[in-house]
């Protein structure tokens, strides 16, 4: 499957070609066409690179494009599940991003014990297997403070804008408040000389069915239940992954980044 990065490179190439045509064509029709291509290519490259995980699944879903990998896995137009047929049975897997805004070091011993109990009780009610992956690394603090201060300011701005609305979204306000609290905590640790630990977490669940449709329907139902369970039990934000983001998690089931810099570049 062609990644969003390569699609953005292609769009950038269109932009460069358009710029060359505009330069060669001067003020004529060729120059006008070149200018349009340059603008569209440049804008498209930025759009796909930044929001490809949203745009590409929308395009494939509308065009009903089914992607087949060289290992026999199928990715439907929605690009939110991965399917494979094994021995006459269809298996469908989906991935969820688990965004953690609170560290265990910020809670008391009693709070951590209660936290683990809530999680165990919630998971014990599930009737299917769940994989929760944590990728941990010590972050490079060279530019970390500037990044944290920028992200804290962005979260504070989103929170302020939401509060100013006539009918603010309570869930969004809670999410932004947790983000601000997380950035404040990280900044305080950085100022005190503690090297921050980066955490990337995702959950995976798989369902089987005698038909492709039944396997997909079942795994999507599991994903909705799992999303609610994890969000309530762990006080985290859980999101369905699609497109390139889903494929990254799928690739990490086999091989994952070997350095903090490599992981941060993938996440960014």
Through-space gap between termini:
20 Å
Please report which band the strand proportion falls in: under 5%, 5-15%, 15-25%, 25-35%, 35-45% or over 45%: 15-25%
- What number is the mean pLDDT? 76
Number of helical stretches of at least 4 residues: 8
Low-confidence parts lasting 5 or more residues at pLDDT below 50? none
The run of helices and strands is: HHEEEEHEHHEHEHH
* Extended strand count: 7
Q: What's the alpha carbon Rg, rounded to whole Å? A: 22 Å
Helix share, percent: 55-70%
Shape descriptor reads: globular
Largest sheet: 5 strands, antiparallel
Secondary structure class reads alpha+beta
Short note summarizing the structure:
This protein has 268 residues and is an alpha+beta fold. Helices cover 59% and strands 17% of the residues.
């Amino acid at each position: 499957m062609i990644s969003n990065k390569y699609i953005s490179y292609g769009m950038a190439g269109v932009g460069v070609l358009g710029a060359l045509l505009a330069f060669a064509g001067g003020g004529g029709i060729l120059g006008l066409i070149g200018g349009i291509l340059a603008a569209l290519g440049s804008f498209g490259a930025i759009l796909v690179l930044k929001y490809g995980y949203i745009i590409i699944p929308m395009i494939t879903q509308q065009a009903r494009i089914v992607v087949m990998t060289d290992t026999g896995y199928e990715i439907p137009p929605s690009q939110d599940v991965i399917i494979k047929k094994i021995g006459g049975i269809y298996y469908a897997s989906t991935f969820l991003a688990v965004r953690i805004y609170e560290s265990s070091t910020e809670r008391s011993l009693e709070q951590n014990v209660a936290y683990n109990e809530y999680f165990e009780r919630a998971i014990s009610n599930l009737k299917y297997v769940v994989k929760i992956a944590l990728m941990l690394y010590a972050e490079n603090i060279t530019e970390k403070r500037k990044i944290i201060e920028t992200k804290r300011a962005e979260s504070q701005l989103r929170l302020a804008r939401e509060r100013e609305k006539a009918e603010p979204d309570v869930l969004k306000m809670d999410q932004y408040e947790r983000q601000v609290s997380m950035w404040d905590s990280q900044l305080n640790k950085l100022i005190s000389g503690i090297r921050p630990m980066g955490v990337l977490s995702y959950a995976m669940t798989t369902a089987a069915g005698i038909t492709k449709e039944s396997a997909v329907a079942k795994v999507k139902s599991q994903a909705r239940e799992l999303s609610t369970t994890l969000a309530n039990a762990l006080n985290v934000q859980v999101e369905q992954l699609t497109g390139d983001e889903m494929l990254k998690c799928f690739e990490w089931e086999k091989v994952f980044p070997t350095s903090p810099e490599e992981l941060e570049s993938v996440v960014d």
